Amino acid sequence: MHRYKFVLYRPLQFLPVLFGISVITFILVRLIPGDPARVLLGTRATPEAIARIRAQYGLDEPLLAQYFYFLRNLADGEMGRSILYKIDVLKLIATRIEPTLMLVLCSMVLSVLIAVPVAAIAARNHGRLADQVIRIVSTFGIGFPPFWLGLMLIILFSVELAILPVSGYGNTLSEKLAHLVLPSLTVSLSLSTVLARSLRAAMVEGLRSDVATAARARGMPESIVFWRHVLPNSLVPAVNLLAVNIGWLIGGTVVVETVFALPGMGQLLVRAIFSRDYMVVQGVAMVFACATVLINFLADIVTVALDPRVKL
Amino acid sequence: MIAALLKITDLTVVHDDDGGERTLLDAVSLDLAPGEVLGLVGESGSGKSLLCRSLVRLLPSSRLRISGGSITLSGRELTTAPEAEMLAVRGGEIGMIFQNPSSHLDPVMRIGDQISEGIRFHQRLNARAARAAAVDILAQVGFQDPARHYDSYPHEFSGGMRQRAMIGAALSSNPRILIADEPTTALDVTIQAQILRLLMDIRARRGLSVILVTHDLGIVAQVCDRIAVMRQGRLVEVGEKRGLLAAPAHAYTRSLIASHPSLPEKDMPAKTEKRQAPGAMPLVDIEKLHVRFATGGLFRRGAVDAVKEVTLRVMPGETVGIVGESGSGKSTLARAVLGLTPISSGTIRFDGADIASGRAVLATLRRQTAMVFQDPYNALNPHLTVGKMLAEVLRVQGKIESAQIPARCGELLDLVGLGRAFLDRKPRSMSGGQCQRAGIARALAVDPKLIIADECVAALDVTIQAQIVELFRELVERMSLTLIFIAHDLAIVRNLCQRVVVMHRGAIVEEGRSEEVFSRPKHAYTAALIAAVPHIDPDKPLLAPSKMATAQADGVAN
Question: Is the pLDDT of residue B497 over 80?
Fold first, then answer.
């Protein structure tokens, strides 16, 4: 079990990473041009009113002091108040986190469910028609932007066939899942093509590998050679690819949530940016950054579980 | 005579090229009797491995096909048998083991599962019974604690144990024939001797027939009953081993036997002894060298002593061989001499100057030394022609006028016995031996005082090996070169080097004149190493390095 020891000490290494994240998000948000107080009060606000708002939110203090308050509040579990929604940022995020989390989760599961069989079919028919078709389709898949793909899916499944909801999020679990089908499909169609290509390449190599030859020489039928030897050996690079793409996946949810009007954090982030709601942008960026770190950590655990040679 | 178990008649395998076909196996006919060990020898590319693959119809490419002839296993035709029947033949009747156990064992599957997998499939046993059978097999192939080792992964074992595991996997479904394709080529001599003994032991216990593919005639002479010699896809000679080795009928067989490096001393060309002037300075002077590598991560550190307390002097013009098993520190020592590895303690002087004393000394050192590597293909830049590669070295060197560079390139190729036509060739279009000659030409281009050759013939066929060794011998004599020759092949070192240094676990355990060390080894480890080399004379049996000798060697090293 000593191979899993890193699970205990790795979180210590997160501390400097989190500190870096806080500095970067704090600075980046302040680099956005425009004044939130002005946005909040509208164009006809008096300079006095603007000054009052600025003082209320601490916007008139020096940057370093603002960062200090930001850190102190963070330690108390507070990320400040939203200027736009007038509630605590953390509470605001809490109400929005579920759809995003579900979307990321469903997209990942769906991507794997699409990528593995597709890659398997392509690899086992290497060079034949099925392989060529999959390669061409996946090239298109990489080329199509998610927002366009999302709209096309809405037109097909919601408008023409009318079997899935157009947009929004439900209340019961089944409703929610129904609302998530198209958004996660949109995300995973892009992600799974990248994943399937990498998997296919690893599988093609695996089928030619000495490990496969040795298994065949023991009289193992092709199905056992593939599913018990080639696939497990191909998964490790795919998991790492998935982890690397997690930033892209989260970025993708911003677009997809907007297209499908999912009340998640991506949508929240877009609105917060347009209204210069510093505290919210900061909070959401922090949560996204932490999620990326956490998911990479999970990917490390999966890698260790899949490959007995890996030591972290 | 007993009826043949396996009968190959006029087997022909062709490669479909665009528009035509090339014959890779040309009407090969061969028998294998029950319980017989047949040695299949020949150079790389002669079709040995392809023949073995054809027997179980696992051809390495879809462009290869059996175009004629027949293979019968106890009267059953295999070339036309349906694939489902072949599944039962593979593993169930004909088992196979390969050269490189590290790449043929599944790295992410437990060793035991790789053995029980075949048992479950062929014998239709349930998981528990298959596990019990696999544990039994692990014990048979020499695992000390089979029940525990069942759950280990391949990377947790040494090369020798991995080969044992692969043998176990091949035996799991009780085959009658075992095909062993260069099973010991990747292993050290002492481990090789153990694996060969295990194979013979299993053969005796199970009445197994074995086809042993190898390039080492010593192995064949030691363990086989009959020898088949292949060349360019044809079987050139088959016969009982004593008769064949004593009176080879074919010219190629004769050259194979002649190039085997374990010939008795009297046939050797005399080694030139260079007399050292009294008080001559050593070219390389190593004193109490330690090289320690840190291991482990941030939180658990350890260290491995790759080289321990090594003191060694190499005089100008001397040829010194360094032998030892893999992991004994030979290569680390060589890298340290070239300043490529940080030294933990001790000193290395090159031509009197401490190489740790500054960049200037290191620069001088690198201008006057050159290295020849093990893998000739990977050591040459695939994008450069041989001519460009040599010209680059000469230009950087700056010792000769740029106008004279082309002429010098030609001279260098003459020196290593490559025609001038090779100036325009790229490594891809050259054989291993030609690449290695080009690599040596590159080493000579710097006009070095010292050449370090690290296992530079290990990847070559025996006949090519003999040529390269001969080339080194000539060069050393003609150019007053100093040569440090690292090899695990004792016979080659014995043939080439005046002095030999034996390393074991990072330390020098013995050094002296080659003849003396090899004929009267003082250290138990050296004796064990020498005893493990298979001799080409079948009547000089592979001596088991006695357990005591090995234990002593270990004890001393610790």
Answer: yes
